[in-house]
Sequence to fold (316 residues):
Amino acid sequence: MRGRAKAIALCVMLLITSLCPPVGAGEQADERSLVQDNSAFALDLYQKLLTSDSNMFFSPYIISTAFGMTYAGARGETEKQIAKAMHLSLSQDKLHPAFSNLQDRLNKVQKKGRVQLHVANSMWPHNKYPFKEKFLSLVKKNYKTEITAVDYVSQTEKARNTINTWVEDKTMDKIKGLIPTRALDKYTRLVLANAIYFKGGWRNPFDKKDTRDRLFKLSPDKTVKTPMMSQTGDFFYWAYKDLQVLEMPYVGRLSMLVLLPTRVDGLSQLEKRLNVENLRKWNRHLREEKLDILLPKFKLESNFRLDRALQMSGPT
Fold:
């Protein structure tokens, strides 16, 4: 028996987009461990980056991939600290092949239909610095890394522009000027840059004619008018006391999970409950229902300094 419910109400909501397709029972145990570790890192970093008055958007998968490449060249105390911050449970010999297999599966997702998903990694070493060939070969093999030597000493600005052009190309010109002026200098010896580009078509597309301005509550005392998409259809959904959970599938194996507190001022309490165990539990409760959905159109841009957040990250 299918009921009808308002899945998206006019209040604050938290959006989590999963770019890691689920690993089935037949997949490698190392991949399952890596997905779990990445999920724990994502939610840990989310808590560290929280601010009370702004929206937030970041890709934990890309951050963990970049540190996976860095981890390949780390030893001793540095190796231990990276593992702690990134929640890594796999040894060096298992971690990097697991990243390789996971990236292969992500890059194949776009073959399923109206989905573009590109993951690209690059390293830009100084052309006169003697990096160990074993390290360069490992990241090239397991992370499909493009390695291009540049001159940071006499052609610093050219090196910066070259890296920025690579990022622009890999993100379909969505990210421009990633490395700002004077960020590099003659003492720079290595820049690691990676990018992810995702453009997905909804499995159940919204009709443009059904989009119109509606009221949206940003907080208990602030309401704005914004374009809201709407549709009625069958979706996986679960509601319990102070929380609603909705899965919005893209074409293929990817989906967006929408977590909505029932109280306008309930976002901070919901954020405190975000962890891997709860997300799994909420997902297990999802059941298909006939729903009326209202979803605001939105655009997010975020910039972060990760050094302080990562210093506080890792299991305690």
In short: Confidence is low (pLDDT under 50) at residues 1-21. The chain has two domains: 4-21+208-296, 59-201.
